Amino acid sequence: MNSRQPHVDWDILFGGDYDYFDLPDLTPELSGREAASMVKLGGFEPGMRLLDAPCGHGRHANVLAAQGYSVVGIDRDERFLAMAADEASTMGVDVDYRRVDLREMSFDAEFDAAVSWYSSFGYFDDETDRDILYRYRRALSPGGSFLLDMHSPYRHIPSVLANHEMHVDVLRRGEDMAIDIQELDAVASRYYAEKITIRNSVVERARYSVRMFTAPEILEWFRAAGFSEARVMDEHGGTFTVSSRRLVVLGTA
């Protein structure tokens, strides 16, 4: 796989094959449901200043802007930002899109709320990810909320145990195929993964890794980042259990 160091092949992982294999499943209906979950779980109110980071191609930011939120969306990917701006124009909504790497966020008490959705946290080493979490905290006004959505650390373990210590996802589009192979490093609490796409007989490989957190660990990280309160829940706002599909954290500045 790789040298067991945090790493992401960003441009390959989120390039043309992402558009072909992943985008068809990210429907407007799904984006609307997820935006509604953000509002419910975060207790957001229209008119709030909201930071979507990273915002990707704007599928949540544009929906939230249409619902009356003042949204700033940041991402490292210029292509995604252009897609987001085009969709915002089509929808007739106003979102302030900016090219900013999470590691370089420098907002200071500018937002009432911030969101990180769709497993977008934990791709760097622990020191860098802790600093990013602090930057989310610094971006919030006193009393502001940060909503973080991640995979549950327990989600793939049964598959890993049953499949030679690997979890494998396969997605087909006609004759084409995307295969996601994940190996869990239990000591580092990190999945090391390779996504192999076969499209028009062309094979592409992208490697990435992502940190997994237990509830006590991520709550400690929130406290260390300066949040006054933090709590965990499942994707529906209920009690987080080993059966939960998602781990959601709500922190208060």
Question: How would you describe this structure to a colleague?
Answer:
It is a single chain. It is built from 8 helices and 11 strands. The protein folds into 2 domains: 10-153 and 212-252, Vaccinia Virus protein VP39 (Rossmann fold, 3-Layer(aba) Sandwich), CATH 3.40.50.150; 157-208. The chain has helices at 10-13, 16-21, 28-42, 61-66, 78-91, 126-139, 157-162, 215-224, and strands at residues 49-52, 70-75, 96-99, 111-116, 140-151, 167-173, 176-185, 190-199, 202-211, 229-233, 246-252. A hairpin with a 2-residue loop joins strand 8 (190-199) and strand 9. The longest helix is centred in the first third of the chain and has 15 residues, at 28-42. The strands form 2 sheets. It has a 7-stranded mixed beta sheet, with helices on both faces. A 4-stranded antiparallel beta sheet has the order 6-7-8-9.
User: From the 3D coordinates, which CATH architecture of the largest domain would you assign?
Assistant: 3-Layer(aba) Sandwich
Helix count equals 8
Oligomer: single chain
Q: Roughly what percent helix?
A: 25-40%
User: What is the radius of gyration?
Assistant: 18 Å
Query: What string, H for helix and E for strand, traces the elements in order?
Result: HHHEHEHEEHEHEEEEHEE
Largest sheet: 7 strands, mixed
Q: Globular, elongated, flat, extended or rod-shaped: what is the shape?
A: globular
Overall tally of structural domains: 2
List how many beta strands DSSP finds. 11
Q: In CATH, what is the homologous superfamily of the largest domain?
A: Vaccinia Virus protein VP39
Q: Given the helix and strand composition, which structural class is it?
A: alpha/beta
Q: How confident overall, as mean pLDDT?
A: 96
Which range does the strand content fall in? 25-35%
CATH class placement of the largest domain: Alpha Beta
How far apart the termini lie comes to 39 Å
**Which stretches are low in confidence, meaning pLDDT under 50 for 5 or more residues running?**
none
> Biggest sheet, strands in spatial order?
3-2-1-4-5-11-10
> Which fold name corresponds to the CATH topology of the largest domain?
Rossmann fold
